[in-house]
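Notebook, bench 3.
Goal today: get a predicted structure for AAA+ ATPase domain-containing protein from Chitinophaga japonensis so we can plan the truncation constructs. The sequence was checked against the plasmid map this morning, with no discrepancies at the termini. Length recorded as 455 residues. Pasting the sequence as submitted so the record is complete.
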Amino acid sequence: MFQRNIVTALEKWRLQPNRKPLVIRGARQVGKTTLVQQFATGFPQYIYLNLELAADRLPFEQFTNIDNLLQALFFLKNKSYQQKHHSLIFIDEIQEVPEALNILRYFYEEAPEVFVIAAGSLLETIFDQKISFPVGRVDYLVVRPASFAEFLNAVGETAALEQLQHTPLPAFAQHKLMQLFHTYAIIGGMPEIVQHYATYRDITALAPIYESLITGYLDDVEKYATSNSQVQTIRHAIRASFVEAGKRIKFHGFGKSNYGSREMGEALRTLEKALLLHLIYPNTGATLPLLPDTRKSPRLQVLDTGMLNYFLGIQKLIIGTPDLNNVYGGNMVEHLVGQEFLATQYNALSDLHFWVREKTSSSAEVDYLLQWEGKLIPIEVKAGAEGTLRSLHLFMDTAPHSMAVRLYAGPLHISSVQTLEGKHYFLLNLPYCLATQVPTYLPWFQQQIEIKNRI
């Protein structure tokens, strides 16, 4: 069975004394329903409701009070009402009955002993203005495509997963982990894709699934947009996003179109709300707080790198390459690292961050920023020697600390580096297969710096 690390987050929710109904967010086909069904095996009773079905909708449409609703649901699914304290109710496709979203507040206020999870297709909720969530009376959890660690678990590479999570990574494990990461880079993290590959180990057989996923997102827009012009704009935005992913973009003329900034900005922000993409605005400071500058051009991150590779037709370029930085100008692996960073973040407000300095004489850009222990740690996804990391040097000249990270195709080691301005700092060089492990490595990195400083 395809296990998800997010189950740990669900267990934490389950144990909260002041637990609220949980709304699981995520794009279509990222495995929300399967995840909850897997989680439900830990409950004596499980009630599954799909509000696309008339019989499951009816109790919500006839709602008068929460006690009557609960009795109706337990009766409908032939479950014991006396065991409601030990029951999980999963309301799927909840956006089909707008009243059901408002009813979630009554579960929290009047029946907090019942475990309630809801999920739905986000594109539908965005275009239906009748739908609103009960603010302050529900919790949120975001499901994203599978991480490399989840991929390893799915394909049965348990020994590799164990070594991936060992800090520091033993040298003997790097070659195999990098090979496996390259496979993960090809296919991405969409659960249906990962599960099919885990079963058949045939990359060429995945094409129909990619086609179905992409077509499904395009069809969603056509079904729920409010006008034909909106349909065409958003369909173009979806297609063009795969081509422009990993790059900084401008809304005007996006994807070599005739669309203006206003209509294309609206289309891309709609897709962002649906978690199909992220518009990542740059930071210009080297200290907290993180404050993205929305006046500058954002960088585009799409849902899944495997879908991106398929859409662009670059899967074969990845096979056999010793360094993913050689593929698609390095944009693909940089994009994949961003996906890895997001994969372990379940908060609805989670996002990616990067840094720019835009001056006529010396523009610079650092791929990612990670907030850790009151510091902004710069992370570059780059090949080449330390001396070629010009943007990283410029960032470190203004940073009030001496820690930086590079993800690349080489071995794990720590370098002592000097900027052009003469500042010394330490660079943690990690194989890019360890992207999700960066937060784990930072305390170890700091410890190693302290040891070096004492010598």
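Residues 208-454 form one domain. Residues 271 and 277 are 6 Å apart (CA to CA).
Flagging this for group meeting.
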